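Much of what follows relies on a compact textual record of a protein's fold. Here is one such record, which you should read through line by line:
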Amino acid sequence: MKKPMEKHLTLREKILETIRDAIMTGALKPGEKVAEPDLAERFGISRTPIREAFRQLESEGYLTVIPRKGAVVTFFSPRDVEEFYAIKSILEGYAARRACEKLTDKEIEKLRTINEKLRHLADEGDVRHFFRIHNDFHELFLRAADNEKLSELVTNLVRKFQRLRYASLSLPGRMHISVKEHERIIEAFQSRNADIAETLVRKNAEYGGRVLMQETDGAPPLKPAEQAAALQLDI
């Protein structure tokens, strides 16, 4: 199947995608400096738009900008990963519980439509577009929870750790498993079973975080059964 056509990217978007891709593929490693002069020469531009891109990438957890030293690729420790997913599981689980009471039939159908798009993207192996649409799924039930403070907390938290979530969805088989888990969440919403909806969303984050911790030094090893369960959960 053909992949979706790329939209026309602005120069700033191209810079963002270039750096994100380099970090996600390992071309740029944690702690490595991202040089402004090299990017300025590559794109034939001044450093101002590059610095603007750096600020956005810092807010997404890709870079850390150090005064008078420049930008380096952010390092996430096992504790960073554990704490992020622990908080995410609590907040999104609560959002799912509230959404279960408030989602309209039309919104539940929209969740199904989004998940079908994700199924096609998973078949194509298109993790970049999958990640974007995947966000739409979570944002829909978060909005349905109808709690502005909760929405603000989750949005700010997730934005700072975008890189971790992208890395998780990049794991072999995770996109297809994500689609299956979304089906279970939709079924819980459809049946108005708030307990199951909250449990699914919370366990997804808890196990997903533990899988990513295996890629950082000092993380406690998962037992085979735990690793299998974690890989079958969407985050």
Residues 118 and 134 are 7 Å apart (CA to CA). The beta strands are 33-34, 63-66, 70-73. The longest strand covers residues 63-66.
